[in-house]
Specification:
By secondary structure, the chain is an alpha+beta fold. It contains eight helices and twelve strands. A seven-stranded mixed barrel has the order 5-10-8-9-7-6-11, surrounded by five helices. Strands 1-2-4-3 form a four-stranded antiparallel β-sheet, with helices on one face. It starts with a strand and ends with a helix.
């Protein structure tokens, strides 16, 4: 689709790169949003990237709306064929799948679900043609996930599964949203995953929970003292299944300041991913594991 720009009131321009979600659209949105930040265009006060779009806030007393739209169009054209390399981080997220807390919550809201006679994991396994919940969990944890945006609530990462489209896990959201979701629930809706950074309402299917905080407004957690939010758009996540014993050990480690997430710097090539997703993912995971 051709880039579409529309005004939002007197101080915003919404730039839409695509109508469907894809890694290419994510890359394009991140690349162009970065270009706008670094452009030095006077009057821009904030740039907020999303899955396949971004929002620009500007001061109309400094730059006229139509002048800014022309500047953005020129940047869009200049970056259309930009190199598809991203220097980023791969972060391991331990997950206690099928845990007792999300299970208790999902049972309280079964009347809002498409299949009230089964759990969220059982429903997701069934409609994605996995032979068992364990097979679904194995697939969920096998491939990396791309952080396409951070937001909706503070610190919440939106995650795009890095496999061929035909292999992506796809599950509809609840028929009616829950009024409660445990903090740090690992959820899934449509083709997107997420980690609920805070407790609250939600409509994504609940697969498990991580003991690793990702948002700390008090900045008291050792690895969140520099910034209260762990994830950035463009980060890559690798889930790792854990059991109750390791879950409890990590919770204790976080409380005592001993736990530190596994994070490695990595260069991701979109072209290499398209050429061979399995090989590209193996290389990313290899960097995380030190080989």
């Amino acid at each position: 689709m051709k880039t579409r720009m529309s005004f939002g009131g007197d101080e915003h321009i919404f730039v839409e790169l695509d109508e469907e979600m894809s890694l290419d659209a994510c890359f394009r949105a991140l690349s162009l949003a970065k270009g706008v930040r670094e452009s030095g265009i006077k009057g821009i006060t904030e740039v907020c990237p999303a899955n396949a779009s971004f929002l620009v806030k500007f001061d109309p007393d400094v730059i006229a709306p139509e002048d800014l739209r022309a500047e953005l169009a020129a940047l869009d054209q200049a970056t259309e064929h930009a190199e598809s390399l991203l220097n980023t981080r791969i972060i391991e997220v331990p997950v206690f799948y099928n845990d007792p807390w999300t299970h208790e919550t999902l049972m309280r809201f079964r009347e809002r679900h498409q299949a009230p006679d089964v759990t969220d994991l059982e429903y997701a396994a069934r409609i994605n043609n996995y032979e068992s919940v364990d097979a679904l969990i194995a697939a969920h944890a096998a491939s990396p996930w791309f952080v396409s945006m951070v937001g909706f609530v503070a610190g919440l990462p939106w995650l795009y599964q890095m496999v061929e489209r035909a292999k992506q896990i796809e599950v509809p959201k609840y028929l009616r949203p829950r009024t409660d979701t445990p903090r740090l629930t690992v959820g899934h809706g449509g083709c997107l995953g997420c980690i609920y950074s805070v407790r609250g309402a939600g409509g994504y299917q609940m697969f498990g929970i991580t003991p690793m905080p990702i948002y700390d407004p008090a900045q008291s957690i050792s690895y969140l003292r520099d910034f209260m939010i762990l994830f950035n758009p463009g980060d890559i996540v690798k889930f790792r299944p854990i059991g109750r014993e390791e879950y409890d050990a990590i919770v204790a480690g976080v409380a005592e300041g001993r736990f530190k997430p596994r994070i490695s710097s990595v260069t991701f090539s979109l072209d290499a991913f398209h050429a061979d997703p399995a090989a590209s993912n193996a290389k990313l995971v290899g960097v995380l594991n030190g080989y």
